[in-house]
Amino acid sequence: MTEPSQYGRPGPTIVQWLLDTRPLWPVPKQASSKDEVAELKNVASQALSFLSPSEQASVLKYYHLKDAKMSLASHLLKHLVITKYCHVPWSSSTPIKDANGKPIWAPANPNLMGQVKIGFNVSHQAGLVSLIAVIGGEGKEEVGTDIVCVSERLVQDYQHIEKQGFFDWVDMHGEVFSESEVSFMKLAAVELKLGAGLELMGFGKDALSRCQRRNMKLEVKALKGEERKETTVTIDSNIVIEAKRRRFYAMWCLREAYVKMTGEALLAPWLKELEILDVQVPAGNEDIRDPISLEKGQVIKDFRIIFKDKPVTNVKMELTALGTDYMVAAAARPATGADNPTLELGDWKLLDLENDVLAFGQVIY
Fold it and tell me: How buried is residue 61: exposed, middle or buried, by Cβ count under 10 Å (0-12/13-18/19+)?
């Protein structure tokens, strides 16, 4: 994807950015979480100086340091996208909210060179912040993003699953999914690497579908080699549950991005009427050795979206694996009335705080 000219009149074009706050603004251990956030004011003083007093206060109100850091990064990205593509000073690049509470930039004089409309959405999870923006166009295009980290609640997830089972764990979140999605998350087959020449038989697939407990050995039937000889394979149920859990988070990420694209919350009355089906889980690069790596893995682009029993054809969605634990979703819909998705999604660009954000802000401030 080619980014739009920062002074031209492009559009509509999509920008997709990531900022990793985990290595940023290291704060020495303090007596309490509140003290750590207070110390952030000193450690991140340069970055905070790029925000208005009210924005600084909104960052420093958080109880946990990681949340304050992600809030700071979110504010910086919003200012950056407006300044870079609307030819306005950083100090004047404060976004406003539309009727649904989504951040937008509406130029005072759209006839001036570089004065384009911007609609955008941000997400943050486990230290990572994403921003997706649509530059130019009619101002009626919609975009949404969400991030999930499958390891962030690993301990809590496993505790519930070991006590109540995987199906009960899914049902705990069932109010935000359609019935077909809940059934898919519980029972749809999961892809496992069994070894060369092995293929599960029907009853073997059923055993994996019904699996909802960890720390078990599953004896399943499989066919081996060109002779298709029947054999028994032992599968660790932990692998099955983890594959199902990762699929749950993939579906959560997609649904959240879609709902955020519309500007409504996960309490929207139509949630049960939205179905995102045939979801494949993007795989991360198995060769990654760095636990904090955000190396791009597989990108899944084909989803079947149903809303109120009718196919949705004007929304594009993508789900990208980052590192071993993260997934980021993007959703885009053209202006109302367009029959086909004309907005093109691209790669996520990981920004460098000093070179891509603060240095640009200093020049344009």
Answer: exposed
